[in-house]
Amino acid sequence: MSKRRASVIFxxxxxxxxxxxxxxxxxxxxxxxxxxxxxxxxxLLNHMKRKHAAxxxxxxxxxxxQRKPLLxxxxxxxxxxxxxxxxxxxxxxxxxxxxxxxxxxVSLVQSSLFYAFMQETQPAYxxxxxxxxxxxxxxxxxxxxHNKLQEHVKSAQSVCLTVALRSGKKASAYMGVTGHxxxxxxxxxxxxxxxxxxxxxxxxxxxxxxEQTVAAYNMSSKIASVVMDNTSNVGQACxxxxxxxxxxxxxxxxxxxxxxxxxxxxxxxxxxxxxxxxSCFAHSLQLVVRDGLKSSTQTTKVLAKVSSIVAHIxxxxxxxxxLEEQPKTQAANATRWNSQLKRARSVLxxxxxxxxxxxxxxxxxxxxxxxxxxxxxxxxxxxxxxxxQGDRVVTASLVIPSIRGIKRHLRSPSEYNSKLVTALxxxxxxxxxxxxxxxxxxxxxxxxxxxxxxxxxxxxxxxLKEDLLTLASTFTIDSHLQVEEYSPPPCKKSCIFPFxxxxxxxxxxxxxxxxxxxxxxxxxxxxxxxxxxxxxxNQYRFPRLSQLAQHYLCIPASSAPVQRLFSTxxxxxxxxxxxxxxxxxxxxxxxxANSGLV
Length: 598
Description:
about 600 residues; alpha+beta; 22 helices; about 45% helix; extended
């Protein structure tokens, strides 16, 4: 019998102890019984390979022999890397990236589980103490990124800031300041600060954090504009002396309104007297949509049906099974108005018979017509919001064309949502029309080679052209862009033919005027092309305009970069959830957001 069990395959089967040449073998890993010949084990071996490929086929004794050297190797003391060892330094940087990237508690380095993990994976790594990790490794990375940001600020033509507040738990709030600049004709978005605003987040506290951030990077002379959300306390901070040299006290907090998200917001008019400050255009667009939906009871009732259907599908196992082959329904998201639009699309895409079979209030034929009309009305708003909240793309130049496109779109009559359209038109005039008169957005549109003057009437075009000529005439060309410009020789006074002096002289166009004329007369580039790539390729043809473009095209149309920063923080946005102190949270957020700089 011992010879019969010589093959290791027999260790995985129960084999009867008899003398029969052909018998039944039962697998120890599954209920299968199969016939086999004691002289041939190929069918048993094939069964193991097909059904239990993960099970090793070595004998237990041979496995034990193989483990002995491994166990002895693990118990052998390993020499630790020194602090100057390149492998130690690389591992330290990776650990900082891990903790900052996931906003993990810094106590991780003291965890026994982390120590056991490192002993298994790389016992030579010298795990830093918590004090060394916080006061040395984190500080070194923070200093490295801070210096890199200072270099960017110094080399940038201009810097635009976005400022926003985000409420946390226990009445805490966090203020984020992001910067936007064009470096080598590429738009860079960076985080300058993310600080906790303790106590009441008043205008004074916002101003204090703003001034500290600007001073830390010595960039007060570089700031082209500040874009901020429409919260009343942020608006009041703009009115305080010292926010920017051009700030004036002019604000009426009585215009504060409630946003779709439930935050306290104020009407954009509080910033009208602040030339260097712009309220968030995307937020104003949300106010327009909110006003429209409030005024149309019929539309909101149908949207409530849609929300009920989506909730039922997501909560009911029967409904989910019934619709498993249908398009996925859009989950409700109370913080974004366009979630209603996406839900309406997803519900209408479901087969009507299957939708009617659900245990919910059915959509009538008229409901479907109202929804289709609603989608047609709101799609341009969705497109505008998506474009102006793009990441690392030029958006300031799209503000005025977007407003004019929305106004033109709303002139089309609506058969089923006329109240909605009327309210949207009225709210557009209230919240968005003021942006059409904002100089930064006008200049950004003209300096966008995709647009230039194409969205303006003749009288507006003439005025904006004169404005561009004035800007170009006073702009100093960077030394690396300077070319030898032709200057006509001075006219000599004629003694023989004095009457020639009364004739009109030939007008030689100035270099800056030639530059502006040439730029405006050339056709616009296709919309899908990058305007910054155009200016990079034409910086020597248009040395003045290319620098002006860097000044105005870095302005974002919304405070989305700051909001995106908060959303990517996830649960780590609240330091109390991860036991992070304010200082550690701010440092980790700074490293997380700016890790792409090195």
